[in-house]
Structure formats: C-alpha cells, structure tokens
Design a protein that fits this description.
The chain has about 180 residues and is mainly beta. The protein folds into 2 domains: about 140 residues, Nucleic acid-binding proteins (OB fold (Dihydrolipoamide Acetyltransferase, E2P), Beta Barrel); about 35 residues, no CATH class. The chain has 2 helices and 7 strands; from the N terminus they run ββββαβββα.
Length: about 180
Amino acid sequence: MSVNKAILVGRLGRDPEVRTTASGNTVCNIRLATSERRKNRDGDWEDHTEWHSVTVFGKTAETAGRFLKKGRQVYIEGRIQTRKWQDKEGRDRYSTEVVGNVLRFLGSKSDSESSGGQSGGYSSPSPSPKPTASSGYGGGSQQNSGGAPFADDDIPFAWILVPLLPSLMVLGDMAGMVV
C-alpha cells in the first residue's frame, strides 16, 4: 500500500495564473507560502518559509481564478507530482508540484484586501471517504458539526481551529461540553 497525499495551509504569494488548454480544460497555477517558527542554534526564534507550486483543474481552477488574490489564506489538499521536462539547452529538468483536488478559502477577504468577506471552499468532483459539510460544488462556509472536543495532540494543525474558537465554544455550551 502507498499514499500520496499533500495538505497545505498557507498564503498565496501572487495572484493565481489561469489559462485554458487547447482541449478547453481550465488550469490554474498557484504559488503558496507556508511558514513555521523554529529555534536556531543560538536558541532564537526565526521564521522559515517554504514555497510550493500548486496546480488545480476544471471548476476548482475557475473558482480559484475568480476569487483568490495574493495574500489570501487557503487550505489545499492533493497529491505530489514530479514532471520531467527539457530546458533550452536540451538538459533534463524536474519540477515538483502539488496537484490539488480540494481548495478551501480560509480567513476572510479582508486578510488580503481591505473589504470584508466570508470563508468558503471548493472541491473537485472526486470520491471521498469522509464527506464534509463544505465539500462538493458551490463552496459554502466551513462549519463544525459539533461532537467531542479534541486535544491538541489529536489535531496536527490545531492552530487552524483558533479562528473557530468562538463558534466551538457556543457549540460546546449547547451540548453541555467544556471547550
């Protein structure tokens, strides 16, 4: 058994580049920055940014081109793919990218623009073992459906939930749980 799955949460480094192929398929290329804080050898905290090339297709590409702008925070799920190509001198070159099949908008439009907005998302039509409220066509807002609270160790990206804490607290109060 093998698994090829990539999950990225980051900000766009530039506006998406959308094009249409000769066969009429829409393709969108996105440059995504992910950052982490870590201690250097002197014990001081420093930021490290990693840049990722992401490609999405079809309706997901159209949606990305229409609604995403530089600086917008997104969640992308897909697979890692390496392509082989030749440069002008005929040398073999390789490019590694994430081919995304799930795209969700995080934060608000005001994160990258000066006007307000709402969270949303978009997924390519593909079978998914765990459907979510915001997967499928048409977007929608990301919502927590309730349930038991999780410990930070149970959630690899617990910091994603920080903006959702007020909603989680209300859901927890309604269910009689402490969040």
